Amino acid sequence: MIECNYLLFFYFNIYNKLYLNLIFVDYVTRYRLFVVTVVFYCCCNEFYEVGFKMMNKKTYLPNQNEVERKWHLIDAKGKVLGRLAVKIAEFLRGKNKVFYTNHIDCGDFVVVINASEIVITGKKIEQKTYFTYSGYPGGVKLTPYSVLMKKNPERALLAAVKGMLPKNKLADKQIKRLKVFKDDKHKHSAQLAILAKTN
Questions:
Q1: In the CATH hierarchy, which top-level class contains the domain 65-198?
Q2: Which of 77, 93, 109, 187 could serve as 114's disulfide partner, Cβ 3.0–4.6 Å?
Q3: 134-156 exposure pattern, b = at least 16 Cβ within 10 A, e = fewer
Q4: Tens digits of per-residue pLDDT, 50-62?
């Protein structure tokens, strides 16, 4: 559309210059140039109208009540903590969907099993610590991940995923849809069975 407008403007400038220069252009040439200009103008308008009708100017914005939430089962056995948390955060936020909108909660449910067998690379198992604060003076607790993975591996994964979610009210709803279990036993078999039937 912009290129047609530029060509039309350029063509009209040439026509005006030749039309005003009566010494070098006779009436027959002027008439031919006028006919060509009118035909070119009509073609440009036709292409513009067809392109305007074909262009979809509406963007689909999902409604909060219309979002269909699915259930995803992830086996964390042998998976790296950070890479697994990235994938989980993507499902919780709904970034795998085509209608993803950052200010609407359109994520799914995620069930993670075998959290006790998550792999932590490098020296993070010895150097990384889990920070908690009770709110009282002296209430700071630093737990090494070597202790945390043996005592409560679910909390390590929850902390990693929560750090990858946005810091707003949506994250509070999204993190509640994450269900983490240390072994392969979980209590969401009914939801996953319905999902398997629908797929």
A1: alpha beta
A2: 77
A3: eeeeeeeeebebeebbeebbbbb
A4: 455 555 667 778 8
